[in-house]
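Chains adopt folds. We examine one example:
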Amino acid sequence: MMASLGIITGILVAIIASIIIVLEPGRARNALYDNSVQGIVSKIIQLFIKEDNSSADLGQEEEMSTDTITRIFTEKELDRYDGSSDSPGLYLAIMGKVFDVQKGARHYAPGGSYHFFAARDGSKAYISGDFTEEGLTPDVSGLSPQQMVDLENWVKFFKKEYDYVGKLSGHFYDSHGNPTSGMLEAQRMIQEGLRLKEDEAAHQRRFPFCNSEWTQAAGLRVWCSKKSGGISREWTGVPRKLFNPGTNKWRCACIEEDELDNPHLRLYDDCEPMAISCKAGP
């Protein structure tokens, strides 16, 4: 690019000089050094430089957004970033992604409530709450698909709040920054968790939770409204015990009239079939 720029500059200077010689021969010798001439050439050069820099910026943005070129840490390298006085910084990893958490030093630096997360990947502990050495592990086996979605939400939190600085080779990425089988399995579990959560949300929209209250005088009462269960809708529904298939577990649900023949429903004792409020216990 620089060689091409030199050629372009030379051609421009020659053209401008030729014009000056034709128009004002007497000033031809001095014109090449005239500020206005140099300014024109300079501005044209800057346009080329700006174009080149714009391309570089675009490449950098692509690098950051696609996450294809990044620093790869080993566990030994990351172990140095614990925020102590002689450490090079304060980093932590979650699902193999390394973040600079210096601005959250009051939490993650030595003496902070969550210092045990610093300089390591303790992914499983974000969900399990086990902050022992055994629990602070990147091995997320045993977590459910829904819990993996919750862990992914933690990753999104760190992306939003802190600077992403690289990847940790080991469980989720190899030494070249490529996803391992552990990462591919985690992503599969996350997708399954998202599907299950959507199914659960659809189920709750279909069978919203009842309102409930307990008083010493009247005991437990359940009832339905057009906003019970936090689900706004056009219908009210009537309270029923909704059983999980194949189990004895149930919850109170507000049931639309055309759903009342569902075999997993039971009427509350001493409750009228179409009553919107029922006594549910002592």
Notes: DSSP finds eight helices and ten strands in the chain. The longest strand covers residues 163-168.
